[in-house]
Structures are given as structure tokens and as C-alpha cells.
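Notebook p. 47: complex prediction with magnesium ion.
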Amino acid sequence: MIILRSLFAGLLLFVNMCTVSAQPAPNPVIAHRGAWKKSGLPENSIASLREAIRLGCYGSEFDVHLTKDDVIVVNHDDAFFGINIAGATYEELLAKKHANGESIPTAEAYLREGMKQKRTKLIYEIKASTAGKERTLELTRRSVALVRKLKAEKLVEYISFDYDACLLVHQLNPRAKVSYLTGDKSPEQLQADGLSGLDYHFSVFEKEPGWLADALKRKLITNAWTVNEAATMQKLLDQHIGFITTNEPELLFSLLQEKKR
Ligand code: MG
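Predicted complex, C-alpha cells below:
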């Protein structure tokens, strides 16, 4: 009896240790332009990436552009505080700073920061260039080369509204995860073209009610952006969406926590 009891106690201790030491379960939370809203940080800043990592998000999304002198920088809009990125040198962009004192991050600095850990994926959005398709494709080639140089392949997942950029990433690195953003291609088409998934505005899944289930059946990555309302998050979770990109990662985490209870 004593032996049984101590065995049972040992088993309990083991289970407890496993629970404590285990990595948090994978979650569907992708912070849109980093986690910035609740914390009052600038979007697409290194600080917002650190915050997304601190929250334990599955991924932290960010946007990249190519300067005139071929430096890849992280910013959402085509312009950084009024300076058109495609028409400016990196040096020229350093004239302006984010509210927290950061300069515009280079993609290299951003990736290096993300590589200090392994849990949160770096969701790398290739932006179409205002200087034309060839510059978009040049940005794509340089992006894949940069990720390769840094050995960040396992941490980076690509997304783009530009279908040619998506196809080129796949061509340059067939093992890379690449999802398309625009919402005008069926899961069948994406799969036929070798892409990994669809990352569509949540309204697309309402307009095309069969696409989410079909994509899941095809084992494609499924993601919806940019979902900031609890009711929409819940609806997508109920439909078993893979990931949700949000400005409110804390809200999505609290919803998932409630679901567990
Ligand atoms: Mg983006």
C-alpha cells in the first residue's frame, strides 16, 4: 500500500513537473505589426516585436519595403513620416524616428531580434513597391537571400498581397511557408501553385463560406486578418481557423483562456 501510495505521489509529481516545464501550447495568435496597441508602442517597431514575443504569440507580423539603395526596412506604409521609402536612401530615412526613439528598423535588425528566441514566428510581409513590379521582385529576392544568410528559415513565414512575389518566394525556397493575402484565389488554386496557405480578410471567409473548410481539408495554412472584435474571433475559432491576425492579441488570448475553462 505504501509502495502504491509513493508510486502515485511520484506520478503526480511527474505530471506536475511536465505541466510546469512544458512549452505553452501552440496558439493561433498573430500580432499584426507586432503587439503595439495596448502597450502604446509604434507599429512595426522592434519594441512591438519584443512585446509580441513577451505575450507568447505564435507569430508577429511585420511589413517590409526596399529603399532606393537596396536596404530592406520594416514599415507599413509606403512612406516613413512623409518620406517615400522606395525613392529614398536608408540614410535619408534616418532623419525621422518613431515616437519611442527607434529609427526605422532594417529587416536584418528585426530578424536578428526575433532570432533571440524560437517560439514566436516572424510573419514577413513583402509589400508591393511604389517603384514597380521589378522592385517588388527585387525585394522578394533580397528577402529570401537575407533570411537564408541569417539562417532564419525555420522562424520566418512569408505573406504578400502580390501573387508574383508569393510565387517567387516559393520558387527560391520551396520549403518556405508562403501565404497569399488578397483573397481572390481559391484554396485549390493556391495549392496547385505550390503556396502554403491563405491569409485573407475575415470578410472573404463570409463571402466564400466553403473556402475555410476546403483549405483545412487540403492542410493549407488558414489565417484571417485583421480581426479585432471578440465575436468575429470566436466565430473563426468555431470554424477551426488556424490563425488570427489581430491588433488585439491580449483580447484573443483572454478569449482562448475563457474557452479552456
Ligand atoms: Mg502587413
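Notes: Residues 27-260 form a domain with the TIM Barrel fold (CATH 3.20.20.190). Residues 10-25 have pLDDT under 50 and may be disordered.
Next step: compare against the earlier run before touching the bench.
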